[in-house]
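Dear Dr. L.,

I hope this message finds you well. Following up on our conversation about the binding site, I have prepared a predicted three-dimensional model of the protein together with phosphoenolpyruvate. For your records, I am including the exact sequence and ligand specification that went into the calculation, followed by the structure tokens. Please feel free to forward this to your student if that is useful.
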Amino acid sequence: MQIKKAHALHGEINIPGDKSISHRAIMFGSLSNGTTEITNFLEGADCLSTISCFQEMGIKIEQKKNCVLVHGKGLHGLKEPQHILDAGNSGTTTRLISGILAGNPFVSQLDGDNSLRTRPMKRIMEPLRLMQADIESLKDNNCVPLKITGHELHAIDYTSKVASAQVKSCILLAGLYADGITSVTEPVLSRNHTELMLRSFGAKVTSEGTTASIAPDPVLNGQKVEVPGDISSAAYFIAAALLTPGSEVLIRNVGVNPTRDGILKVAKAMGGSIERLNPRTASGEPVCDLLVKGSSLHGTVVEGELIPTLIDEIPVIAVMAAFAEGITIIRDAAELKVKETDRILTVTENLKLLGCDVTPTDDGMIIHGGKTLHSAAIDAGLDHRIAMSFAIAALNIDGGIELEHSEIAEVSYPDFYKDLEKLSM
Ligand SMILES: O=C(O)C1=C[C@@H](OP(=O)(O)O)[C@@H](O)[C@H](O)C1
Ligand SMILES: C=C(OP(=O)(O)O)C(=O)O
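The resulting structure of the complex is given below.
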């Protein structure tokens, strides 16, 4: 796909539903009694993978025009899948569902695409095994395909080396099937959607600092879930509007949970003009509209506790930094190496193809911004965030860019190119 240079961006958009929250609404709805009604559900490929896994385990899930209905069967209502569960491109599906499968009395297998097959699962296999789960990597490489033989689990207090909401959520979900209270402590707080939503479904979840705990065997009841817009998807239009002079864009209904809003802090530190309007809550999550105006940006340092709050936005932050005046340093972000691609590598290699002065490091990158970038062909491969981030870079490059495998954006944002075109007209 050819993405052309754009002049100013103008108008309003409604951002599609949050991917993390959409996955969780399907999962927790499936484990509840009664029906869960989900509005603004993200119909991205990753969340559709979660739906198909639970359908395969006997849960009736209806995709209506304005909502998704999950007819839950309670904590112990899943049935043994007859086929391999296909998590597609989705790390979230794989790691969260593994915690659930470990506690359910049947045998299951989980697999996914060539990107998922390279992603580390040892980080969940280790704590699950401490809970006495029976989980094996069928190729003996700590990746999918996984085989899980479920049974009652042993409660643990686990200290995780990585700040990962997927690891934390996996253990908390396994804790639903444990013989006591299970807790997880992480080095830095990661997104807390699991804790917030499980509590609203009736689970006894407590959070204190970076420790979350859960009591076993609750009665979960179906809920109405209104999914906020995904700040990780909004990030592309935040970057686009900030970078193109004269832009003014209103992004409606964006989830701004403090464990996710690091992009707003970084954009502000770079000199970006972003106003939060109309603050409210949706299903226990803070939401607002964002008014973003073209700004002249300068470099910054992105590090420490901020990293988990913007981990998926680093590719597009790097694009912003490439056009900003001065140096941007991103550190403490080694987790980038284990996403859909090694994002330290794919971001820096692709920025170099455009003529950017950028150096990868062990845990991030150093970007010398402000050079005029030139046109090139960029291959997004199996990484949706690389596709969308470089589509945003193209808006500021004479001759634009040729984006290969642009369709991978459908993993988290099926209408991305349509929305981009609408705002750039
Ligand atoms: O829990 C979640 O929904 C997610 C957690 C993050 O992954 P990690 O937990 O591996 O950091 C994030 O990158 C992913 O897109 C979604
Ligand atoms: C890392 C991501 O997702 P997941 O881990 O669910 O594949 C992402 O969306 O950038």
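In brief: The chain has two domains: 2-16+228-424, 19-226.

With kind regards,
A. P.
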